[in-house]
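Give me the fold.
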Amino acid sequence: MSDASIDGLNAGELATVVELQRVELNRLLSDQRRLNDRIDQMLRMQEREQVLRQQMQAALDRLADQRSIANSARTEAAPAPQLAERLHRTERKFSALQSAVGQLVDLIERKERRAHPDRPATPGGGHVRVFVPGAPEA
């Protein structure tokens, strides 16, 4: 309202305008208090969220460390079973190879005896000795 419009009001009308302005001002102040309360609440929530994020990050870091330790322990422990399995496979292959070589030697000796029945036996009874590492000597 301008000064010219206020000058044209009587005392009752001026009192009504002042009362309306006071009511509006009180409403605006109430809205401002609610808004400030909301802002404070939002700031507290944001602060709490940051604390929870930090706690969650710390928990994730601890979990990652535990997993890393478990993986390294598993990796260190894993070669033993892998090594044992590899040793068993090698022993099976060696056993199969030893058996095949023995059969081959028998076959060669039989062919030699059939091809040359009059030839004297080779020293050691006509058998070829096969060296087997780790096996007792005959």
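Helices lie at 3-7, 11-77, 79-115.
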